[in-house]
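Postdoc handover notes: sequence design on the structure in folder B. Input tokens:
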């Protein structure tokens, strides 16, 4: 059978770096190229493999653990929940994947997936940004040559729909997995520890940590291989498929066969996003082509032409809401802006952040270019942005606003701080705590959590609780847990802080 040529070469990923990457660089949500999910001071770099060896020896709850939720705002302002699992199930899952790497390493030899685990220059093992423009164009030209139709489709509600037992089915086959249910078997261990990250539930995996990317590839790589053998030519970006065909009938057959194979793992195609289109077609979306033709020349980025370009992007966003147009436009120019234009661009973008909080992370680039000799001039704007998104409970918008206010040591009014606490958002309250202005109120919030004697509730705030415990503000909230709170004790004794600088 004809198979598609390997399109993506990956650097080798050895077992040692796999564990390091999972624990220290891809535990918290950090999969975009520029790490835009969370402010850079929040990371797990100090959670080394040596420390995790102590955590995996601790007993765990049979009914599993809950996780921190962090709402990431998308271009259409609909939130996407990201997750940070509790350290006990997460470290056990990491070690299970690491210990069995030779059996699951097949995911790095895929011919179809554009996102596979590999060692990147910054030590992450998963980066999920789209490929660069030149490579994308070359791929489109190559695969569409002499073809008449292409298919675009994806999996419906992918990560929340992954059935944990299907991990074992992918690893050893359905028959063997159903016949051998010994929980100590390596493939059942991976299933078990995955379930422990999410209340021992069989449906869904956390969105954010690289463990979930590996688990998704364990399943989808098996399907890729089967479809390859049947002669289909396609590429896959996570759960998004693009395939090329000589005939319309062959395109329909691909959709049918993909749907059949997915159903074996209890996954469904997204019918609303499944289309068959005629070739030739452009290699880029219409709005990308339009914007790039209007982009200011890199050597001539004046205040006038940069604002006109962004004005056009704002207009385009209003009539084409199905793409991250404004953010794309900003990224096209922000790295080439000189210091004298940076402050004007910052003012312009701050005015958009109320409606488009997706822009907040890129402001970090501009703040790094500007020197404020006198009083910091943007406190009022950031506070209004913070309050607006606290009311709407947008985790990322609150967190980034607080990060900037903290960086410039700005006071946060009590009413706005109360709105942040009322949002009950773990990461945002953590960044309010980092302002060092509302310790008593946040300690009271944590004491209230502890008083409810609900371990799952504590898990939803474990990161906030740990930081206050690390700083000596509260006692160990997990003293009545299976491990008697040893997870926090070990982390603190080993000097693990998830806040890099204070």
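Designed sequence:
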């Amino acid at each position: 059978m004809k198979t598609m040529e390997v399109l993506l070469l990956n650097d080798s990923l050895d077992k040692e770096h796999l564990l390091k990457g999972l624990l220290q660089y891809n535990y918290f949500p950090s999969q975009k190229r520029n790490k835009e999910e969370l402010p850079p001071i929040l990371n797990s770099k100090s959670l080394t493999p040596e420390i995790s060896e102590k955590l995996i020896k601790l007993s765990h709850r049979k009914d599993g653990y809950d996780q921190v939720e962090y709402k990431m705002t998308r271009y259409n302002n609909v939130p996407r929940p990201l997750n940070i699992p509790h350290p006990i199930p997460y470290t056990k899952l990491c070690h299970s994947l690491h210990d069995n790497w030779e059996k699951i390493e097949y995911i790095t030899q895929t011919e179809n997936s554009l996102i596979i685990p590999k060692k990147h220059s910054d030590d992450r093992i998963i980066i999920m940004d789209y490929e660069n423009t030149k490579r994308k164009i070359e791929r489109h030209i190559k695969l569409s040559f002499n073809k008449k139709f292409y298919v675009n489709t994806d999996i419906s509600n992918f990560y929340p729909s992954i059935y944990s037992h299907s991990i074992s089915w992918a690893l050893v086959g359905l028959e063997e997995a159903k016949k051998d249910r010994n929980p100590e078997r390596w493939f059942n261990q991976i299933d078990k520890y995955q379930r422990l990250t999410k209340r021992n539930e069989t449906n869904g995996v956390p969105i954010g940590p690289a463990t979930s990317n590996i688990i998704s590839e364990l399943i989808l790589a098996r399907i890729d291989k089967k479809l390859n053998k049947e002669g289909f030519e396609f590429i896959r970006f996570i759960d998004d498929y693009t395939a090329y065909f000589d005939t319309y009938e062959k395109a329909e057959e691909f959709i049918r066969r993909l749907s059949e194979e997915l159903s074996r793992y209890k996954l469904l195609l997204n019918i609303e996003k499944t289309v068959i289109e005629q070739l030739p077609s452009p290699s880029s979306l219409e709005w990308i082509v339009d914007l790039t033709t209007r982009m200011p020349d890199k050597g001539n980025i004046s205040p006038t032409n940069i604002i006109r370009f962004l004005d056009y992007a704002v207009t385009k966003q209003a009539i084409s809401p199905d793409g991250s147009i404004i953010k794309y436009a900003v990224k096209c120019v922000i790295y080439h802006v000189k210091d004298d234009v940076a402050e004007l661009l910052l003012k312009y973008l701050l005015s958009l952040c109320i409606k488009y909080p997706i822009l907040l992370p890129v402001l970090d680039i501009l703040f790094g270019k500007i020197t404020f000799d006198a009083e910091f001039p943007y406190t009022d704007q950031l506070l209004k942005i913070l309050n607006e998104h606290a009311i709407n409970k947008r985790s990322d918008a609150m967190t980034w606003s607080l990060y900037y206010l903290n960086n410039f040591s700005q006071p946060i009014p009590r009413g706005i701080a109360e709105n942040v606490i009322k949002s009950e958002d773990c990461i945002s309250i953590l960044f309010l705590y980092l302002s060092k202005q509302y310790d008593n109120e946040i300690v009271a919030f944590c004491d209230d959590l502890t008083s409810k004697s609900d371990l799952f509730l504590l898990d939803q705030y474990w990161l906030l609780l740990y930081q206050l415990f690390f700083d000596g503000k509260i006692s160990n909230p997990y003293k009545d847990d299976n491990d008697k709170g040893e997870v926090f004790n070990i982390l603190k004794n080993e000097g693990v802080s998830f806040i890099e600088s204070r």
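Context for whoever picks this up: Residues 1-10 have pLDDT under 50 and may be disordered. Don't rerun without checking with the PI first.
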